[in-house]
Design brief:
- With about 325 residues, the chain is an alpha/beta fold.
- It is built from 10 helices and 10 strands.
- The chain has an 8-stranded mixed β-sheet, sandwiched between helices. Strands 1-10 form a two-stranded antiparallel sheet.
- The protein is globular.
- GO terms for molecular function: hydrolase activity.
- Keywords: Hydrolase, Signal.
- It holds the Pfam family BD-FAE.
- This is Alpha/beta hydrolase.
């Protein structure tokens, strides 16, 4: 019944009703992977190369670490950090995968985590509940719980708890920005795991993630051909619950508490909807930001050569500057 109501509301304005759960299949959506991105992207960019995992002797790895348990559900992350322990504490980066809040996997960014760890950062690729399992704001709650776990376990990884960055690609970029713009806002902490610990981040890296679901530049919520990723995540078409779509937009929360932000973008304009308005607000509060666009680059540029190494360099240079 719910899927018919949702289809009706994609065409007509509906009275408010409960959040639709037809997208909660309980099954993993494996449609978005690095290889599937490569297959689609290489049609227009035949010279790209998919970046594979590295074997770096200076990087220590620990995988499948449980950071929060919700009922019987264990949420995990992976750690990539400098093998040689320094007297100086290590900045931490939480790396959030994309996939439309519905697909994708934390393993997609192992190469990025490995390269940044080799440059002296402790990187953590994180799993979070997708829209096949839980609707917004569950993913936000999970990621903030992961940050609290990192602070709780800071000694084990020699982390500098005053130098945490949230980094994400695509949907993960939106989530990284949302986490950072809701610093110090208890509404988005959730109710699970280490609630007396701070989830604050001191830097944001948004790689081609939208800043607003309702901005005129945004392409999110177009359900004319099929149900969009954002509609599945929220459980409402945009016009059925505009307020929720607006609330979930990082642009709605930018303030004096927002940390410095780096934007790395493809040539696909709609993927950085709201970016310029976001930066204007940061500038009003004298908060540093950078934006770099790769000409002619596809949306998934950070997964491929020739854009992977420039991406790493931009991130490392930005974090060195703000940390």
């Amino acid at each position: 019944m719910q899927k018919y109501l949702l289809a009706f509301c994609l065409l007509f304005t509906c009275p408010a009703f409960g959040q639709l759960t037809s997208g909660l299949t309980g099954k993993k959506d494996t449609s978005y992977t690095n290889y599937s991105a490569y297959q689609s992207t290489s049609k227009q960019h035949p010279n790209i190369k998919l970046v594979r995992e590295f074997k770096l002797p200076m990087v220590q790895e620990k995988r499948n670490l449980v950071y929060c348990t919700i009922g019987e559900r264990k949420l995990v992350l992976d750690a990539f950090y400098p093998k040689k322990k320094s007297k100086q504490k290590t900045p931490a980066i939480l790396i959030i995968h994309g996939g439309g809040w519905r697909s994708g996997n934390r393993t997609q960014h192992y190469p990025l985590a490995q390269r940044l760890a080799a440059l002296g950062y402790a990187c953590f690729t994180v799993e979070y509940r997708l829209s096949t399992e839980a609707l917004y704001p569950a993913a936000v709650h999970d990621l903030k719980a992961a940050l609290r776990w990192l602070r709780t376990n800071a000694k084990a990884f020699n982390l500098d708890t005053a130098k945490f960055a949230a980094l994400g690609f695509s949907a993960g970029g939106e989530l990284a920005a949302f986490i950072g713009t809701t610093n110090k806002n208890p509404k988005y902490e959730g109710r699970n795991c280490y609630l007396n610990i701070s989830s604050q981040v001191q830097a944001i890296v948004d790689i081609d993630g939208t800043l607003s679901f309702v901005h005129p530049e945004s392409g999110e919520g177009n359900d004319t051909r099929s149900i969009s990723a954002a509609t599945y995540w929220f459980g409402y078409p945009k016009k059925e619950n505009y307020v929720l779509w607006e609330e979930a937009s990082p642009l709605q929360h930018v303030s004096k508490n927002t940390p410095p932000t780096l934007f790395l973008n493809s040539a696909v304009d709609r993927m950085h909807a709201g970016r310029d308005d976001y930066r204007k607000i940061l500038a009003q509060h004298n908060i540093y930001s950078e934006a770099h666009t790769f000409p002619n680059a596809p949306h998934a540029f950070c997964l491929f050569d020739p854009w992977f190494e420039p991406t790493v360099n931009y991130i490392a240079n930005f974090l060195a500057k703000v940390f």
